[in-house]
Design brief:
Blueprint (H helix, E strand, L loop, with lengths): L1 H5 L3 H32 L6 E5 H18 L3 E6 L4 E5 H18 L5 E9 L2 E7 L32 H11 L3 E6 L4 E8 L5
Parallel strand pairs: 2-4
Antiparallel strand pairs: 1-3, 4-5, 5-7, 6-7
Length: about 200
């Protein structure tokens, strides 16, 4: 399709380029499905190492700060350091960025998305707070199922796999994903066992 688009007339080129974008979205969906299935089945070769979740938060903040600004949002990040966990760096970073990306998609313009890492007893908690529509309490368990999209999300890009992946990553690490009310908005919390907990 990409090769055909290069030499195609303008009208046809636009159609071919749209088809390439559709194919890219399908490939991304299949890749996410495969990653979730491998994590849930135990066949994913996770590479656990000692990590500081505060450092991962800093990396995620740098990645999304420009996007937030482009959307007329403020991305505010703060962390208790150190925040030691043992985990797979790539999977944890993917889970964190999925939660940030969701918040930025749903937050209203000129609002703040707060992202924190804090200690809570034997756990390190990564938390994202936005001022969007939130998730009704009766739907909070359902949104972690594959391909689930609530009515207010249907017009936004996405496959309905992001929260499924976050939940799978949390469980692989002995942690949990939970949702709360930010009144208004959503609080999404990823809790992971602290590496230094007794």
């Amino acid at each position: 399709l990409e090769l055909a688009a290069r030499g195609a007339p303008d009208a046809l080129r636009a159609e071919l380029e749209a088809s390439v974008e559709d194919a890219d979205r399908l490939l991304a969906t299949f890749a996410s499905l495969l990653r979730i299935a491998r994590i849930e089945s135990g066949s994913y070769a996770a590479e656990f190492e000692a990590l500081d979740l505060a450092t991962l938060l800093q990396d995620a903040n740098e990645l999304y700060a420009g996007l937030a600004q482009d959307q007329d949002l403020v991305l505010h990040a703060a962390a208790d350091a150190p925040a030691p966990v043992r985990g797979d760096r790539n999977l944890l970073f993917q889970a964190m960025t999925n939660l940030i990306d969701n918040a930025l998609k749903h937050a209203p313009p000129r609002s703040t998305v707060e992202v924190t890492v804090r200690r809570d007893g034997a756990f390190i908690v990564f938390e994202v707070r936005d001022r969007g529509p939130g998730i009704p309490e009766e739907a909070r368990e359902r949104v972690t199922q594959r391909f689930t999209r609530l009515d207010q999300s249907r017009s936004l890009p996405g496959s309905g796999l992001g929260l499924s992946l976050v939940k799978a990553v949390a469980e692989l690490h002995g942690g949990a994903l939970a949702f709360g009310d930010n009144a208004p908005g959503l609080v999404a919390s990823l809790s992971l066992p602290a590496a230094d907990a007794q």
